[in-house]
Amino acid sequence: MDNLTKKELNKINVINDAEKNVLAIIAHSITAAEEVFSILTEEDFTVMNYKVIFKTLQEQFLAKLAINITTLSNYMLKNNVLSKIGGIEFLTDLFQTYTTDANLSEYLDIIIKNTTVRRLNAVLVNIHREIDSHQPIDEVVSKAEKEILDVKKERKGNLFKTSFDEVDKVLQKIELLENSGEMLTGSPSGFRDLDRMTSGFQKGDFIILAARPSMGKTALALNFAVKSAAQSKKAVAIFSVEMPAEQLIQRMIGSYSTVDSSKVRTGKGLQTRDWENITKAADFLKRTKLFIDDTPGLKVIELQSKLRKLCRENEVGLVVIDYLQLLSTGTHFGDSRQQEVSTISRQLKALARELEIPIICLSQLSRSVEKREDKRPIMSDLRDSGAIEQDADLIMFLFREEYYAAHDLNNSESPLETEKAQLILSKHRNGPTGNVELLFVKKHGSFADYGLQNAKF
Questions:
Q1: Residue range 142-159: average pLDDT?
Q2: Do 399 and 422 contact (CB within 8 A), yes or no?
Q3: What's phi and psi for 432, nearest 5 deg?
Q4: Would you call the peptide bond into 323 cis, given omega within 30 degrees of 0 as the criterion?
């Protein structure tokens, strides 16, 4: 204490006075006590005596015991803590501090800010400790980001949301939607019938798009990404563990330009008209706020860190991850891949809630689909984990019957240039389930609303 500056001493005195005054107010006002106990804990107090008194007052309050200097001192004497705080004289001085409840909010603000500073300092100390112990730097950064965000969020999370406030918010939202004439309440998918059923992809939702290989789930996910970015003008993040960014952009250009994807891929057979369409598609894609991460072997902890940073710097409307089974936790689960996928699924759901953005995650299906006469996928076909079914807010299966018809004829390619596709909504936590009919344009590798064959990407 001798080495402290005058400014530091004054700050400590202000905090101590605030803690003392809050305790005095609790002891005199049942209404104030209810408010304080809903906001503070004993860990918010820096003086040990005040910690003990706060805990004792809280115990009396919860036991519905009358609070005054007599009951408090008797209670503390019975529990062998009165001597620890300096006896009855200390309590008498505390009770005499009380004058009014008027400054309670100010005192609470001082205590809460001090707690926030202390917790931030603790996070910084922990960061230095982990760096010194040579922990993987990406894990240190991700953990630090979460702990720093949690410092502020924890205080908000302690408070109930009242129906009075929340009902008003919902009514205001309904009124805004009515006046705007907009049917969407979430990020657009760009597909008419799907948006009608979902009202857009909703904030905080964890969405699964699953299909067997070669069904076109990556193509559909890219359609979602670009259409959403174009319509909402918000940033869209794409995490591609399977395919490099260059190939993704190549596929997007082929899809939007309506140039045969094989020509775009090889650069052969392109006509003047094709180049005009490719240039137009390229210009369109440059105007969208698409962010692509193609890190191979991406760990969930890395994804979390990158996405938090992106959300701090941009208004993100949608996230696409291709695909779930290629992510890893970086943690050893022995031979239990199912346990690891369950962990990844829970972490992605929590991340969607934390950042208040919809996350679409592509997923594989088990081979059991191929063994059935009816090849339409069901939720039990989700590969590796039943936890995916539990965590997801929306589960969509992509199904093309012509794909199986072609294979039944020992032909890997359907002779049709366009095929009817079904997007099967098997689970929808906040809305209806059912089928959405789409059109798959094979040579462009894109999807459109059924009946709109010439619709652009």
A1: 64
A2: yes
A3: -80, 155
A4: yes
**357 φ/ψ sector (left φ>0, alpha ψ -120 to 50, else beta):** beta
Beta bridge partners, 423, equal 398, 436
Give the chain's radius of gyration (CA, Å). 29
pLDDT of residue 162: 63
Asked whether the predicted pLDDT for residue 383 surpasses 60, the reply is yes
Comma-separated ranges of CATH 1.10.860.10 domains in the chain = 1-160
Q: What is the average pLDDT across 176-203?
A: 81
Can you tell me the distance from the alpha carbon of 207 to that of 200, in angstroms, rounded to the nearest whole number?
12
**Where are the domain boundaries for CATH 3.40.50.300 in the chain?**
186-449
- Whether 456 has a pLDDT exceeding 50, the answer reads no
> Is the backbone of residue 434 left (phi > 0), alpha (psi -120 to 50) or beta?
left
Question: What would the pLDDT profile of 296-322 be if each residue is shown by its tens digit?
Answer: 888 887 788 788 888 888 899 999 998
Q: Tens of pLDDT along 119-134? A: 888 888 888 888 887 7
CATH topology of domain 1-160: DNAb Helicase; Chain A (1.10.860)
Integer angstrom CA distances of residue 388 from 303, 340, 356, 364, 392: 18, 11, 19, 11, 6
Task: Evaluate whether 249 touches 226 at the Cβ level (below 8 Å).
Answer: no
Strand residue runs (E) in 223-356: 235-240, 290-293, 316-322
- Residue 413 corresponds to which tokens in the numbers above? 């390619």
Distance between CA atoms of 453 and 457, rounded to whole angstroms? 11
DSSP 196: H
Torsion from C-alpha of 375, 379, 381, 385, nearest 10 degrees: 170
pLDDT at 354 over 80: yes
Q: How far, in Å, CA of 416 to CA of 410, rounded?
A: 15
CATH number belonging to domain 186-449 = 3.40.50.300
Weakest-pLDDT range from 187-196, 256-265, 288-297: 256-265
User: What's the rounded mean pLDDT across residues 7-21?
Assistant: 86
Of 271, 277, 229, nearest to 254 by C-alpha is 277
